[in-house]
Design brief:
Elements lengths: L1 E5 L5 E3 H10 L3 E3 L11 E3 L1 H20 L4 E3 L4 E3 H7 L1 H4 L1 E6 L6 E3 H19 L2 H5 L4 H12 L6 H13 L5 H10 L15 E4 L3 E3 L7 E4 L4 H6 L1 H7 L6 E10 L14 E11 L17 E5 L1 H5 L6 E4 H6 L6 H17 L6 E5 L11 E9 L2 E10 L3 H10 L5 E18 L1 H8 L3 H10 L2 H14 L2 E4 L7 E4 L4 E15 L2 E8 H12 E5 L3 E5 L10 E5 L7 H13 L4 E3 L6 H9 L5 E5 L1 H6 L1 E6 L5 E5 H12 L5 H7 L13
Parallel strand pairs: 5-12, 14-16, 26-27, 26-28
Antiparallel strand pairs: 1-2, 3-4, 6-11, 7-8, 7-9, 10-11, 12-13, 13-23, 14-15, 16-17, 17-18, 18-23, 19-22, 20-21, 24-25, 28-29, 29-30
Helix pairs in contact: 2-14, 5-7, 5-8
Bound molecules: adenosine-5'-triphosphate.
Adenosine-5'-triphosphate binds next to strand 13, strand 18, strand 23 and helix 19.
C-alpha cells in the first residue's frame, strides 16, 4: 500500500515494503506468535532492541547527565489508592462500541473520527480537490480519478458540520458520541454493521498484591506517580534547593481498546518521563533559558488550529515565551531540549512540529501543554507530551495521605505574622476523644485560618461548634470552649512553604523509534529498488560491516586484527564472510542500517590498508587500519562526519559494483 507520505528522498513511501523489511531483518513481530499473537504487544529483535538502547543512551546523556536530573526506578505495580487519588481510577478511560454481530470492539472516538474523515476524503475526491494538487504525478492522477468515481459528494452544510465535529471530538461524553453515531449512521467500517452505544472502559490492567483481594492494584499507566511520591526524598537529595528534576525510564501499561498502527498504539510501552519541580512564584523561570532563547521551533498554536490550518510557524522560543504563546520559560526550555534530542537521534526535522493542546484537550489543572508530533505514514503522531501540570499531583497526594509534599524557601528577612492557633486542653480532650484525640488535634491544626476564626466566633456565640474530621469514623466532632479555643498568636517566620509546580515532558520511546525507522527508510534506485535504513552513526544498532573481499583464508589474520581494534574501541560490528558478491553483502546490510563497511582486499595483504565505505553515498576511502578505525570511532561518537573523513583520507575509486549477482 502506498500513501501520500514521502521518504526523505521524496519517494512515495511503500508501507508494505517497509514492513516486509522490518520482518525480514527481524526488527519486531507480534508477541506470542506460535499461540496466534496478541494485539498491541510486540517483541523486539536484535536490531530494534539495539536501536532502542542507543536512543535511550542518548536520552540519558542529553537529559539526565546534561541537565543533572535525578534518575529514579519506581515500582510498576501500583496500589489502588495511589491511582484513585491521581484520578486514573475514575477518569483514565475510553469509550468503546461493540459490533454485536462480529464481537469486534471499536474505540468510539476513533470510530467516529475514522468514518467522518473517510467521508470528508471521499467528498474531496468527488470535488476533484486532490486531483488538482497532484497534477504532475500521472500515476496518482489516474488512481485518484478512479477513487473519485466511487466518491460521494457532501452537502456544504454537512461537510462543515463534520469538520466541526472532528475538531470538537475530544469534548464529547459517551452519551454525546452515542448520539453522533445515530445521527450520522456510523457503522463498523469493516463489517458495515450497526454498533452498540458507547460504554466507558478503564484502560488500566488491574491485579492484586499478595494472595488477598483486599489489596487491589494496577500496572502503572505512566511512570509519573512514583516520581511524585518520591518528592521528599528528591528534595532531601538536592539539599532542599529548587528547581530540580527527576527522570524515569520504564514500562507503562494501558489496555488500549483498539491497538493499531504497529508500535504507535500498544498495550505495554517504554516511557521516559521527566518531572521538573519548580517554585510557581517567579513565573517558572529557567536558569538556562537564555542559552536557548534564539532557537526557532515549528509551533502550531491553538489559533492556527482553530482556523483549520495545520501549518506550524517557525518562532524563536524567546519570542514565544515573551508573547505568552508558550506559558513560561521552563516549558519553553524543555520544548527546545526535546527538539535538540530529536535532531541528535536523526529524526527528519521537516517531519516534526509542536502542537499546542486546544483548551478542551487539556486536563483541567494544566496551564499549557504542547505535543511534539512526528509525521509518519499514519499521519502526525504525538510522540512526546510536554505539559505544565501546575501543583495538582503533589497537592492531591498530600491531601490524601497527610504527607508533607511541600518545599521551603528561606526568607531573606524574617517576618512576624499573626495567626489563629488551636489551644487544646489535653487533660480534658484525651478522656473525651479517646483513640481519636490525635487525629482531631491534627485536623484542628490543619484547618484554614478563615475556618479557625469562624469556629471561635461560633463557639463564643453558640457555646459549641462542629468540625469535619475525615480521619475518624464519625467524620465530624463537636467542640466547645472548655476543650479548645482558637487564639490569635504572633509568630516569626523564617521561611515560606509552597507546593511546587511540575513541568512534565513525557516521551513514548516506541512511537519515536517507529517514526525514526520510517524517517530513515528510502530506496536506492539503481538497477533495482534496494531498501536502505539511513540511521545516523550515533544510533545505528550495528556500526560497521566487516567484509573480506572473498572467502579466502589469507584474509583471516587481517580480519582478526581488525576485530581486536574495533573491540578495543567498543565499536559494534558484524562480519559478513558469506560467498556472495561484495555489492550484495553491502546492500543487504544497508537494510539493517549499518552506516560503514570496512573491506579487506588483496591490496590489504600487501600494504595493510583497508577501504571504508559510507552507506548513504556508497563512496569509499582507503587508509591504514589505525586511521580507519579512528575515523569510525569519531563518527559513531558524533565527533566527525563522513564529509570530514573524505576531506582527510584519500578516496578509493575502485568501487565495487552495488548490484546483486
Ligand atoms: N498506547 C500507546 N502506545 C505507545 N505509546 C503510547 C501509548 N499511549 C501513550 N504513548 C506515549 O506516551 C506519551 C505520553 O503519554 P500521554 O498520556 O501523554 O499520551 P496520550 O495523550 O494518552 O496519547 P494518546 O492520546 O495518543 O492515547 C505519548 O506522547 C506517547 O508517545
Amino acid at each position: 500500500m502506498s500513501t501520500d507520505y514521502l521518504t526523505q528522498k521524496g519517494q512515495a513511501f511503500d508501507r508494505a515494503a517497509f514492513e516486509s523489511l522490518l520482518r525480514r531483518k527481524v526488527f519486531l513481530w507480534q508477541s506470542f506468535e506460535p499461540y496466534g499473537s496478541v494485539k498491541g504487544l510486540f517483541d523486539y529483535g536484535p536490531p530494534l532492541e539495539q536501536l532502542e538502547s542507543q536512543v535511550i543512551q542518548i536520552w540519558r546523556d542529553h537529559f539526565i547527565r546534561s541537565e543533572k536530573m535525578m534518575a529514579l526506578k519506581c515500582s510498576m505495580l501500583t496500589p489502588y489508592e495511589v491511582l484513585k487519588t491521581s484520578g486514573h481510577v475514575d477518569r483514565f478511560a475510553d469509550y468503546m462500541c461493540k459490533d454485536p454481530k462480529t464481537g469486534e470492539i471499536l474505540r468510539s472516538d476513533h470510530l467516529i473520527g475514522d468514518v467522518l474523515e473517510a467521508r470528508l476524503k471521499s467528498d474531496k475526491e468527488a470535488r476533484g480537490e486532490k486531483i488538482e494538487e497532484k497534477e504532475e504525478d500521472p500515476k496518482k492522477k489516474k488512481k485518484q480519478a478512479k477513487a473519485a468515481k466511487g466518491a460521494v459528494k457532501l452537502d456544504d452544510a454537512v461537510r462543515k458540520e463534520y469538520e466541526h465535529t472532528l475538531a470538537m471530538l475530544d469534548d464529547f461524553t459517551g452519551e454525546g458520541m452515542g448520539e453522533l453515531i445515530k445521527k450520522y449512521d456510523i457503522r463498523n467500517p469493516t463489517s458495515g454493521n450497526e454498533v452498540e452505544p458507547p460504554v466507558s472502559v478503564n484502560l488500566m490492567f488491574q491485579t492484586q498484591i499478595g494472595a488477598s483481594s483486599n489489596s487491589p492494584a494496577f500496572l502503572r499507566p505512566e511512570t509519573a506517580q512514583g516520581q511524585f511520591l518520591s518528592f521528599q526524598k528528591l528534595l532531601e537529595y538536592s539539599d532542599g534547593q529548587l528547581p530540580f528534576a527527576s527522570a524515569s525510564i520504564g514500562y507503562s501499561f494501558r489496555n488500549e481498546l483498539s491497538p493499531r498502527a504497529g508500535l504507535l498504539r500498544v498495550r505495554e510501552f517504554l516511557m521516559a518521563e521527566i518531572e521538573h519541580f519548580v517554585d510557581p512564584e517567579g513565573g517558572k523561570a529557567h536558569p538556562k533559558f537564555h542559552t536557548v532563547a534564539d532557537v526557532k521551533l515549528p509551533l502550531l498554536n491553538r489559533k492556527t488550529q482553530s482556523s483549520g490550518s495545520t501549518k506550524p510557524e517557525m518562532v524563536a522560543i524567546g519570542e514565544a515565551v515573551k508573547t505568552k504563546l508558550v506559558d513560561n520559560e521552563t516549558l519553553g526550555y524543555f520544548l527546545v531540549r526535546i527538539y535538540q534530542f530529536m535532531e541528535k537521534i536523526g529524526i527528519d526535522m521537516n517531519k516534526l512540529r509542536f502542537r499546542q493542546h486546544m483548551e478542551n484537550e487539556m486536563a483541567h489543572y494544566a496551564s499549557d501543554c504542547w505535543d511534539c508530533e512526528l509525521l509518519n505514514s499514519y499521519g502526525w503522531t504525538e510522540c512526546v507530551g510536554c505539559a505544565d501540570r501546575s501543583a495538582y499531583d503533589l497537592s492531591v497526594h498530600e491531601k490524601a495521605t497527610g504527607t508533607n509534599l511541600r518545599a521551603r524557601e528561606q526568607l531573606k528577612n524574617p517576618q512576624t505574622i499573626e495567626e489563629w492557633v488551636p489551644v487544646i486542653d489535653k487533660k480534658k480532650a484525651g478522656p473525651k476523644f479517646k483513640k481519636d484525640a490525635k487525629a482531631i488535634e491534627n485536623a484542628l491544626e490543619a484547618l484554614s485560618q478563615d475556618l479557625k476564626e469562624k469556629l471561635q466566633i461560633t463557639m463564643e456565640s453558640e457555646g459549641k461548634a462542629e468540625v469535619p474530621v475525615e480521619e475518624i469514623a464519625a467524620g465530624k466532632v463537636e467542640i466547645d470552649l472548655s476543650i479548645v479555643k482558637f487564639e490569635k498568636q504572633k509568630k516569626t517566620i523564617t521561611f515560606r512553604e509552597f507546593v511546587p509546580n511540575v513541568i512534565e515532558p513525557s516521551f513514548g520511546i516506541g512511537r519515536i523509534l517507529y517514526s525514526l525507522m520510517e524517517h530513515s527508510y528510502w530506496t536506492r534506485e539503481n538497477d533495482e529498488a534496494r531498501s536502505v535504513l539511513s540511521f545516523s552513526p550515533v544510533v545505528a544498532p550495528i556500526k560497521v560491516l566487516v567484509c573480506p573481499l572473498q572467502k579466502d583464508p589469507k584474509f583471516a589474520p587481517l580480519i582478526a586484527k581488525l576485530e581486536e581494534a574495533l573491540d578495543n574501541k567498543s565499536i559494534s560490528f558484524k562480519i559478513d564472510q558469506t560467498g556472495v558478491s561484495i555489492g550484495k553483502r553491502y546492500s543487504r546490510n544497508d537494510e539493517l542500517g549499518i552506516p560503514f563497511g570496512i573491506t579487506v582486499d588483496y591490496e590489504a595483504l600487501d600494504d595493510g590498508t583497508l577501504t571504508l565505505r559510507d552507506r548513504d553515498s556508497t563512496k569509499q576511502v582507503r587508509a591504514s587500519q589505525a586511521d580507519i578505525v579512528k575515523a569510525v570511532s569519531r563518527m559513531v561518537k558524533g565527533k566527525e562526519t563522513w564529509a570530514d573523513v573524505v576531506a582527510r583520507l584519500p578516496a578509493f575509486e575502485g568501487q565495487e559494483k552495488e548490484t546483486a549477482e
